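Title: Prediction job returns without error message
Component: structure pipeline
Severity: low
Priority: P3
Assignee: unassigned

Description:
Job completed but the reporter wants confirmation the result is attached to the right record. Sequence as submitted:
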Amino acid sequence: MLDVLPLLPAHGLNPTVFLPRGGALDELARRFGEAGVPARRYDDLKAITGDLNSFDLRVVQAWDPSTYRALDTLRAPRVAVVHDQLDYHYPAGLQGWYRQVYRATKLSGLRRADSVLTVSRWGQAFLHTEMGLPHVGGLTNGVNPDRYQPAPPDLRAALRARLGFSGFTVLVPGRFAPEKNQLAAVLAARHAPDLNFVFVGDMDSSVGSLARTLTRALRLHNVRFLGRRWDLPDLYRAADALLQPTLAENQSLVTLEAMASGLPVVTTPIPAQAELIRDGVDGLLVPPAPHLLARTLRAMAAHPDRTAQFGVQARQRVLQRHTLSGTAAQVAALLHSSLLI
């Protein structure tokens, strides 16, 4: 939202953001204000129903399923925006269980909206076909290719020296969670002792702690944990490949940021990732078995010319299909159409 909403006035839409009051969102509210988007704070969503109904369109984006119940108190048109991962590609039994939980929680709330928007074509088809929502619009996520771009050779060498990167360096960024599957990346490092693996994310979380414990238990000397970082553009530019053995995505910003940075991507062939990465063209789609991931990464290290070409093609695909300005134009078009409901 912080990237896209400030671009909407150029398309004839003037957004205002309503955020729950609380210290965790203070910085976000401040940044919205700096970007020219008014941010109003509230203690009780029901108490501001009148304010929300004074606008031409109400758009709800929430993680907590209970928030969608507020749609019942709002006048039409009402749009729900879904960034959820939607489907977890665990073994069949767990996948089916997750779908049932989603239907019982968020799906019942989403049905209160007049239309739903989500951030991938796959997600649009899934919500419509698998989950039975009648009015679903799909768009493509985008990133700023000026912020995420390859570094010239001299700058890249300086970044690697500052970050302590040496040899073929595999970057594994993201929130530590079971579906992000970082444990498979740790085990891949065991199969590729000649490569270096750098993890970025909330390593103090339960899954992050487990990943560090596994690294110590296996006595891996080619794994580093950098914790939370704000310099991801530099990390992308300094690394040699991105590894994302994910089991659940909608449309991954990490993947797009890496692609825009010219960083070759190795990820899993789940539908959302296959929508971004053309196997053998922009990167490689590999089942999340640690030995297969390791073998793929070692092959990339052994063939630097072909690996570099993956990065060139990946950035070109972002420039053609996944820029931030393109996403803003899609959002504006879908919201304008929602006004006609």
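Comment from assignee: result matches the submitted record. Residues 92-110 form the longest helix (19 residues).
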